[in-house]
Write a structure and sequence with these properties.
The chain has 227 residues and is of the alpha/beta class. Helices cover 38% and strands 20% of the residues. The protein contains 8 helices and 7 strands; from the N terminus they run H-H-E-H-E-H-E-E-H-E-H-H-H-E-E. It has a 7-stranded mixed sheet with strand order 3-2-1-4-5-7-6, sandwiched between helices. Helix 2 packs across helix 3 and helix 6 packs across helix 7. The longest helix is centred in the N-terminal third of the chain and has 13 residues. The protein is globular. It starts with 19 loop residues before the first helix and ends with a strand.
Length: 227
Amino acid sequence: MSQPLVPLPRTLEPESMESQEEAQQYGQMDHSAVNRQFVDDLVAGGDIGLQVIDLGCGTAAIPIQLCQRLDDVRVIGVDSSISMLEIAKVEVDYAGMLDRIFLEQGDAKAIDEFQESAADTVISNSLLHHLADPKHGLEAAFYLCRDEGRLFLRDLVRPGTDAEVEKLVALYAEGESGFAQQLLRQSFHAALTLDEIREIAGGFGIDAEHVQMSSDRHWTIDCQKPT
């Protein structure tokens, strides 16, 4: 009799990318399609308001695309990595968005350093898999989002087997550097399953219907902040 498959366990990766060299290598990776889809889905999904906070903004690619799409939106980009924020500042300046995108160093585990209910919409792309306790990412989003504001959070889904991980790495990181491929591999191993993120979200009053697979490798939370 065959043995039942054991689900791939979650293996943590570093919470932030502190070295300048790693941040630069990350910035050279091609995330354009993923970032564009994120902004497309965010804009198509409903009202955003005027003030957006991006948790784990990285090099600020999504805030830049969002502000290019919507003329009246302002974004505060928050990231724990100084190296990432240094790159983001250059990118924001180059895009001519210094008056609409504001960068702050901050940790999702200590987000009360920021103003509560400061955003109409809180967004995040691929932050939660970096956190040892992903609940902190939801806590930060709730803290920063105004009552009845919008939450739009997206991250990778952990596959069931190593073979599935390698298939996705080959599919989506072909032509990327060895560093990029390993980074994606580690991210898949550190990600949550759909059931895991639904359980966490349920603890914040978010119904499972608002936590859906949005691609073959991403889940997305898109909902009004429960009150």
